[in-house]
Amino acid sequence: MTLPAPSTASTAVHRLRAEAREAANRCIQCGYCLPVCPTYHSMGKETHSPRGRINLVKAAADGKIDLLDDMAPSLDLCLGCRACETACPVGVPYGQILEAGRAATVRETAARGRSAGRLQTLALKHLFPHPGRLRAAGRLVEAAQRLRLDRLVFAFPPAREAAPALTALGRIVPSVEGRFRLPPGTRLPAEGEKKRTVAFFQGCVMDAVMPRINWLTVELLRKAGCEVVIPAGQTCCGALHVHQGLPEAAAELVKRNLDAFEETGAEWIVNNAGGCGAMLRECGHVLADAGGGWPERAAAFAARSRDISQVLVETGLPPLVKRPEGLVTLQESCHLRNVQKAAEAPVKLLRETAGDRFRALSGASDCCASGGIFNLLHFEESMAILDAKMASVRQTAAVTVVTSNPGCHLQMRLGIRRAGLEDRCRAVHLVEYLAECAGLTAER
Amino acid sequence: MDAETVRRLEEIFPKERLLFGKADRHSYSFDASFGEYLPEGVVQPETEEEISRLLRLANEHGIPICPRGAATSLSGGPLPVKGGLVLDMSRLRQKLEIDRENLLAVVSPGIITGDIHRAAEEAGLFYPPDPSSSLVSTIGGNLLENSSGPRGLKYGTTKEYVIGLRAVAPTGEIFRTGGKTVKNVTGYDLTRLIVGSEGTLAVVTEATLRLIPKPPARETLLAAFPKLIDSGHAITAMLTSGILPAAMEMMDNACVRAVEAYQSCGLPLDAEAVVIVEVDGHPAAVKEEIARCAEICRERGAQRVTVAADAAERDAIWRARKMISPAITRMGPTKISEDATVPRGRIPDMMEALVRIREKHRLNLVVFGHAGDGNLHPNIITDQRNREEMKRVEAAVEEIFDAAIALGGTLSGEHGIGLMKAPFMERELGPEGLRMMRLIKQAWDPNNILNPGKIFPEPGQTRLVLTES
């Protein structure tokens, strides 16, 4: 029964009601989302299922439960993989409900004068939106790695909160190779006949931590006949901000990206991170009420956004010079499958290059529990899901685990280490794998 | 819940499987039906022993216990209407054994029914009951509600496949019923008494299911009828032609339109009814049978009859059927889903009665269902915030029940009585029939702790009430 919100309800509750109540009402509670939810599996409670979470948002919006004490902890433990949306027979926009719930949590936290997670705020407000700082951080990690000073980081209080997670993740961050960093504001010609002009979306983490993968992405695109523009002024996509309940911050980032990319006139805007790609596709959500032509511009931008795998399926792969050694498997990107609806593209490329050496991973579409920065904020919960996944990876006997999102990539590296498979198995980004097949040497 | 009871519960369950938080209680307050009741707590047993100790305690203290599988019930089966504790059975999923030699499956109640289908098929066997929620719902929930799905016509319902149980009585004793044999007349058939008892008589902790060899071939057709009444006659004609289809489904024009608007499956928008027929068995026999069914449909006025040429076409036909539920949900926020069932010869009469009820009460009433076994699913799409319309819904649902009973049918084919249909039990069973059932309940559960408030009407409760007064 939809009751009017109690008159004592806070502004955050009223806003949650306006933003999510109608969408939540579309849930018919059939439970089709339960079998696909990673946290329902690992935690075994309706409270940590999509159906349960939607119900809690409803109850909070109706003033039946407390927004912070009762609703927020459950939403906090959602990975945001959105597998439930793919399973939902009636098209409940779970992502929208989740984001509204998280934004309400942030607003209410502020209104009650409680403090938000320090690490989270620090990273989101002062690191991810600033490519310069992220790059500096990347260089810092690189230097620390060289000087073996990594552990100094943990003297810093916000880092100590997440010490177990940071220690574990710190060990598996690939060495940062700054020489591959792409210069912003350049236009790189296609190799051979030019078929298309595309713009490359670098992504904040990819650019700072995995510049070599970005460089290989551009090289693959050029070999596939694309002229590649790398617009200056581009920034973080804002996905992490939206997931942490900061849609206003995300909106500012989206605006900067619209400005940067519209000038290029490129046919497609290519990214190599499933999570960023999902945000680029849905960037209109945070500008829905912006007016001033922003929603229309966002829609046009979203329509041109493509994952690297989709583009390579379209253009065709560069000539292959090498088959992979050993068996290859794929851990899918949830956001590529459930939001961008492009799960087949990487599979197609792997079948084309690996042939019968490609082994489907059982449960490949289930989230690896990287979940943006979920593994950082909820280390134990994340590792429970990851360890179960590694049992399936072991069964494939694959020596190469392909991923298509930086978070998944790092998480799979961590999983391989935890499973003790380091001597016989490696995690690579799809682009690295394809570059090997195309004989691209990562040297410059 | 008082401190002493909580302390006693903590002797049985570790803290992480005893949930008293507000978020947890709200998360176990609903199912897929119309209704929301907040439990005082939730327990998540992992063993039969824990359940036995819990029921002893509950019986002693008069605490209502409401067993719950995956909460896909459409009749309010797991709702804690009298408060107390929800008994979350989803963690009892240790066992899924296929016994090829004896054509049996032995399963824990928390196993998902679809996983039993898969395991049986891997062994070349077949578990026919297939409720539409089988990818989500637990076998325990299916057994206790006796929900069956489209294959009841040829293969019978869930109860025909359960031959043995382990269970815990409301007073805490652990007992066995039936066994591993198909034939068994040793004493009362407690297995069948418990199956379909909606969790009011015992908590099932293990079930032995009968499996059958997997039919080697299937053929499927879809027939569109310009006139609803012709589809009814075609269904009767097929059923009396000597062919026993594995499934026979129908949907009315409103469903056809809803499906086409939601996700086009190429159904003809002008058809008043669409019928799907599937036959299975020996490859040569099914070819002949499906051809005969197609002929009967054409003779009885079908405008278009399509026989699926391959598996892909068959899947496309079934996709249209599976789309109905989600498609009609988009027509309004509240869906009242009924499952009144009539003898199969009275299907045309029931369809006419439903059209009459729809027109009389000016409601968005759509009809689809398992026409072959007389189990129709009239659904009313409405908005519970519209009080005036909800009053008309109450009247219409009552008339649906009355129509089914008048035609020699029953209130529920597979969803269960639960809450909403309880007031009508006496109309179907008569006062003495209902009393015999009550006597069983009182003998097994003297303190009325196991799923109270289900099946039996409260004193003086004879009407359906969907609105708060």
CATH names the topology of the domain at 1-214 in chain B as Uridine Diphospho-n-acetylenolpyruvylglucosamine Reductase, domain 3
Q: Hey, roughly how much beta strand do the residues of chain B contain?
A: 15-25%
Across the major sheet of chain B, the strand order is 15-12-14-13-17-18-16
Q: How many helices of chain B does DSSP assign?
A: 14
* Share of helix of chain A, binned: 40-55%
CATH architectural category of the domain at 320-437 in chain A: 3-Layer(aba) Sandwich
CATH class descriptor of the domain at 320-437 in chain A: Alpha Beta
The N- to C-terminal Cα distance of chain A equals 64 Å
CATH topology of the domain at 320-437 in chain A: Rossmann fold
State the CATH architecture of the domain at 1-214 in chain B.
Answer: 2-Layer Sandwich
Give the overall silhouette of chain B: globular
Which oligomeric state applies? Answer: heterodimer
Helix segment count of chain A? 23
Low-confidence stretches of chain B: none
Kindly provide the name of the CATH class of the domain at 1-214 in chain B.
Alpha Beta
General shape of chain A: globular
The largest interface is:
A-B, 31 and 33 residues
The end-to-end distance of chain B, rounded to whole angstroms, is: 29 Å
Characterization of this structure:
The complex is a heterodimer of chains A (444) and B (469). Chain A has 444 residues and is an alpha/beta fold. Helix content of chain A is 52%, strand content 7%. Chain A has helices spanning 11-25, 38-43, 50-61, 67-76, 83-87, 94-111, 118-126, 131-147, 157-161, 163-172, 204-209, 211-223, 239-243, 247-262, 274-281, 294-304, 308-315, 334-338, 344-354, 374-377, 379-396, 406-418, 430-437, and strands at 186-188, 196-200, 226-230, 268-271, 305-307, 328-330, 400-403, 426-429. In chain A, strands 1-3-2-4-5 form a five-stranded mixed beta sheet. A three-stranded parallel beta sheet of chain A has the order 6-7-8, sandwiched between helices. With 469 residues, chain B is of the alpha+beta class. Helices cover 36% and strands 20% of the residues of chain B. In chain B, the strands form four sheets. Chain B has a seven-stranded antiparallel beta sheet with strand order 15-12-14-13-17-18-16, sandwiched between helices. In chain B, strands 5-6-10-8-9 form a five-stranded antiparallel beta sheet. In chain B, helix 8 (228-239) packs antiparallel against helix 10 (283-299), helix 8 (228-239) runs antiparallel to helix 12 (347-361) and helix 12 runs antiparallel to helix 13. Chain B starts with a helix and ends in a 25-residue tail after the last helix. The mean pLDDT of chain B is 94. The A-B interface holds A 1-2, 25-26, 28-32, 34-35, 44-47, 49, 52, 55-56, 59, 64-66, 69-71, 73-74, 89-91 and B 19, 21-24, 26-32, 44, 70-72, 88, 90-91, 112, 133, 135-137, 325-326, 329-330, 333, 335, 384-385, 468.
